[in-house]
Design goal:
336 residues; alpha/beta; Rossmann fold; eight-stranded mixed sheet; four-stranded antiparallel sheet; 12 helices; 12 strands; 35% helix; 21% strand
Length: 336
């Protein structure tokens, strides 16, 4: 039975609103609840996909879990260690075991360093090793990520998008990562290259027993690589369950709309004829000031079709995640 490697409980990360022209007129300093009470767990050799619109807090969750951002409140357990407020000197030995593949590798890879030096730096920062051991480890890493040895003398800008992704994967493996936050690892890549990156991650997971928090906008990729999927909306997880159930039997209206939009892209004719809930109108919403109750209510076609029931917007009855069977959880007063 795989053990739990990561457990997140009621995690919150609120950012202070930047002061502007009219800040002096406000008595209270505003905050943006980027992550607002998120709980989930991840087992060894498992992938949890995290999906949602831009600005919903996906990347902030990943960065906060890795303590690249300090949480406002909540609890983070990594491999049995409470790292929520762990001092930097105690956290350092665990850094090598939990790493992140950044979305923007043009910014994450030092443009003035050759690939060999980038990998060497990652190894030597976390491990004491001789030059021979470092060279041997670099060769092993290249084999693991299927990257040609000739690329070691290149600078990052001389590599293709797919090759940069492989270097990013090699770098997190070089320090001995067991848990990896993969932030949009297939974005801005051709479909064929996306498939290669996904297959590489799956192969490494099987061979090395890795655990992934896979953040992506690409629902096809998320469904393919994830064991479980968590759907975020405005800082909260609104639905979570097995990948197949989330993709083909969603219960939250927002999840239904997300996956239906994937079908609509493939068939414009179907989107014109359908009368299912996703035909509702999407309204403009202020991401900084979510109203009381259900945060999706202003854009929810089910809320509209039921005559805008008060329970959906009552601050005292905010929907909480509840299990509806088979580990499928949904936060909705009127699940589909």
């Amino acid at each position: 039975m795989p053990k739990t490697i990561l457990e997140v409980t009621d995690l919150k990360k609120h950012f202070k609103h930047r002061k502007g022209l009219f800040s002096s007129f406000s008595e209270q300093e505003r905050t943006i609840p980027a992550v607002d009470g998120v709980s989930f767990y991840l087992k060894e050799n498992e992938t949890v996909g995290l999906v949602g619109e831009s600005g919903c807090g996906k990347t902030t969750i990943g960065r906060t879990i890795l303590r690249l951002e300090n949480p406002t409140s909540g609890r983070i357990l990594f491999d049995g260690n409470d790292i929520t407020a762990m001092p930097a000197d105690q956290l350092r030995p665990l850094r090598g075991q939990m790493q992140m593949i950044f979305q923007d590798l043009d910014a994450a890879l030092n443009p003035k360093m050759r690939i060999r030096d980038i990998l060497k730096e990652a190894i030597t920062v976390h491990h004491q090793a001789s030059d021979e051991e470092v060279d041997r480890r670099i060769v092993e890493l290249l084999e693991q990520v299927n990257l040609k040895k000739s690329k070691l003398s290149n600078f990052p800008h001389e590599l293709s998008g797919g090759e940069k992704r492989r270097v990013g994967v090699a770098r997190v493996l070089s320090v001995g990562a067991r848990f990896i936050v993969a932030d949009e690892p297939t974005s801005a890549l051709d479909v064929s290259i996306q498939a290669q990156v996904v297959n590489l991650l799956r192969d490494l997971q099987q061979r090395l027993g890795l655990s992934y928090l896979f953040i992506s906008h690409d629902l096809r990729v998320v469904e393919l690589i994830s064991h479980k999927v968590a759907v975020m909306y405005l800082g909260k997880i609104v639905e979570m369950g097995l990948s197949e159930r989330i993709a083909h039997a969603p219960r939250h209206p927002y999840t239904h709309i997300l996956w239906s939009s994937l079908v609509e892209k493939q068939s414009k004719e179907a989107s014109r004829c359908t009368t299912r809930p996703h035909s509702g109108v999407w309204g403009v919403f202020d991401f900084e000031r979510p109203q009381g109750g259900c945060r999706f209510a202003p854009r929810c076609p089910v809320y509209e079709s039921k005559g805008k029931p008060v329970v959906c917007v009552d601050s005292a009855s905010e929907p909480r995640l509840r299990d509806i069977g088979n580990g499928h959880q949904v936060a909705c007063h009127f699940p589909l």
